[in-house]
Amino acid sequence: MSRQRSIEVILASEYVSIGELVRITGTRYSTLKFYTEEGMLPFEQAEENLTRRFHREATVKRIQRIKQMKAEGLSIPQMKELLAKER
Amino acid sequence: MNDLTLAQQFSLVGLNGQDSLHGTVVKKAALRCVAAAVVLEAWLEGIFVQEGERFVLDLSKTEAFCEEPYRQLVMKTLLPKGKKAELSWWIRKASGLSKRKLTRLEHAITAPLRKQWLIEDIPGLLGCDLYLHSSGVEIKEYRTDNQTFTRITESVRAEVLEEGSITDETICMLWLLRESGCMHDLFSQNEMQTIAEKMGNLYRSHPLARQLYRLQIRRGFELAYKQFLKFKRRAVQTVTGSGINFLFPALERSQSVFIEMEAWFSNPERRLKDIKNRLESQGHEFTVLREGQIPLIKIDNVVYEAIPHAIYGRVPIHGVRLLPRRPF
């Protein structure tokens, strides 16, 4: 058990948790969970530790890209297709 | 984006949608939790030190901690008697502050948040109701900045509902949400089961949770009032929703808001337009989440179902009843 990391520390670290992603992007947890389960947000998961770790810079960029595509009116399958092409 | 303290984060969640002019039962419960949150903040910042199984105040660090007015108000009030007391004593005493002190605490905690535009006073949604709107009664309520509200509540949800360790702030936040009665606003019934399990595990394994989760700061009278409201809600259940509102709207005015329409038998689009006009004229933020016969509308930070309804007085009045839909 530990204290929550401050925003400065989160913004300086390489990997973040899903809760920290919520704090820095202001996106809802259920939305991020859905994107993760759809394979739109890649993550790393150590075998023993069940916490999912996201690469901060790449994931934040990916979330912004998804939001942009959502604003353009694309559906989830279309977004997934585009993201796969861009990868 | 700033880091907010535990008491600030909790007050943004607990005071959202509460009457800002009068001391309602719900607001008093939230303010008592804000006072307890100040003590927990002190624990998080190392003002309490562990002595065996007990946490006792470290007097050498209190001066630096009490720089903020809201912290000073709570800690300095209790300090004369609490020098040797443990954490649970401080929480009990803080949550039992007098009505006058709680009002001062409310001003002390909201003033800096107002300056940062994180909380504001808006005309109360209940003021949009036909009767109150036409009689010119002024009702004001707090509204938390939408983005900040989402950040706080969703990061708590993420941490609790996701696998992995839970931070000390979230352990405290869960207890504060439980004691202030906000839990049902943020979590669904299924999620509540997960949370109950997690809180049980924390109680067994974490020293702070063991101290904290056995404390209850709810008052007997308020508990009875809450039970009565729960009974009322269960009393009537219909296909379209639950609540006694459907039978006796006058009894349950705090739960639903009636907005009359300009035309009889108006269609869903015109109904939505009329609601939009009324809410925007009162300064509310209005987002349509789902259109249709029963639209889903997000007003400020709460989601409502707009159910077509009519009031039968001397003349029937057609309109829409806004029912809170929780959790969203």
Automatic annotation (TrEMBL), chain A:
Which GO terms fall under molecular function for this chain's record?
A: DNA binding; DNA-binding transcription factor activity
HTH merR-type domain spans which residues?
15-85
Q: What InterPro entries does the database record attribute to this sequence?
A: DNA-bd_dom_put_sf, MerR-type_HTH_dom, MerR_fam
- Tell me the SUPFAM superfamilies matching this sequence: Putative DNA-binding domain
Taken from the record, one Pfam family name reads MerR_1
User: Which keywords appear in this protein's UniProt record, sorted alphabetically?
Assistant: DNA-binding, Repressor, Transcription, Transcription regulation
Under PROSITE patterns, the record lists:
HTH_MERR_2
Instruction: From the Swiss-Prot or TrEMBL record, give the protein name.
Output: MerR family transcriptional regulator
The species is Paenibacillus yonginensis
Q: What is the lineage of its organism?
A: Bacteria, Bacillati, Bacillota, Bacilli, Bacillales
UniProtKB/TrEMBL annotation, chain B:
Top-rank taxon of the source lineage equals Bacteria
Return the protein name: Uncharacterized protein
- Naturally occurring in which organism (per UniProt): Paenibacillus yonginensis
